[in-house]
């Protein structure tokens, strides 16, 4: 029988059906615990095998929807290659052997330099250049967030004529992204792939940029499951954290794999 009740593993009492549903999974804060730095992320030994088994159980209808680059995700999950919407929907890799399609222009050098000038003024802040977006991490210096936000907004206003970028807030990070990309738009595109088409989407995420993905999943008749953290409180979240998400997925795959 290919139905699983999530509550058996803790987490939401959702019945997931591997033959008729598709999984869309955020990465940081959802599949893996938040770390002090982007490079410090630890991938649990069992996660790669778990995702591989889910791909089989769902006949390929499993995608990672992340703010990370596709290359980052490939590195974390090696040797597994998945369908990935990277850089908050700015890059798509629609099949394991496909090339990455960029849906936005790379951030121009002058914008990156302008942002770097802001960041240099605050020791401890990290900047991640991801091609079509820039992440400014202030986890190590939380008191600097208001200053950074004001300065980054000012910098973006200066370059607005040449680049249509917006500033979004993530988990102790400001992300500079093209206005017209989103995780939600990426889910709509992936849902058209043969492996995903006609399946009910289940999107699991923990952060602001997952909101558009939740909306897209619900628009397609699916459901949104929230993970507790800096964005969702325990009261409104469906999962206490990534460990519970992994346990829920593991229970699901156990019950759906003959
Ligand atoms: O969409 P996601 O998969 O959740 O990616 C969102 C961002 O995740 C990373 O930053 C976050 O995780 C870091 C490591 O745990 C943490 O140090 C940081 O404070 C978090 O904001 C990643 O570095 C970003 O590029 C992603 O956009």
CATH H-tier superfamily of the largest domain: HAD superfamily/HAD-like
**CA-based shape:** globular
Within the largest sheet, what's the order of strands?
Answer: 7-6-5-4-3-12-13
Number of domains: 2
How big is the Rg?
18 Å
Kindly report how far apart the N and C termini lie. 8 Å
Bound molecules: the ligand O=P(O)(O)OC[C@H]1O[C@H](O[C@H]2O[C@H](CO)[C@@H](O)[C@H](O)[C@H]2O)[C@H](O)[C@@H](O)[C@@H]1O
Structural class: alpha/beta
What's the number of helices? 7
In the CATH hierarchy, the architecture of the largest domain is: 3-Layer(aba) Sandwich
Taking the sheet with the most strands, its summary is:
7 strands, mixed
| CATH topology descriptor of the largest domain | Rossmann fold
User: Low-confidence stretches at least 5 residues in length (pLDDT < 50)?
Assistant: 1-8
The share of residues in extended strands comes to 15-25%
Secondary-structure element string? EEEHEHEEEHEEHEEHEHEH
Number of strands: 13
CATH class of the largest domain: Alpha Beta
Q: Give the proportion of residues in helices.
A: 25-40%
Mean pLDDT: 93
Oligomerization status of the protein chains: single chain
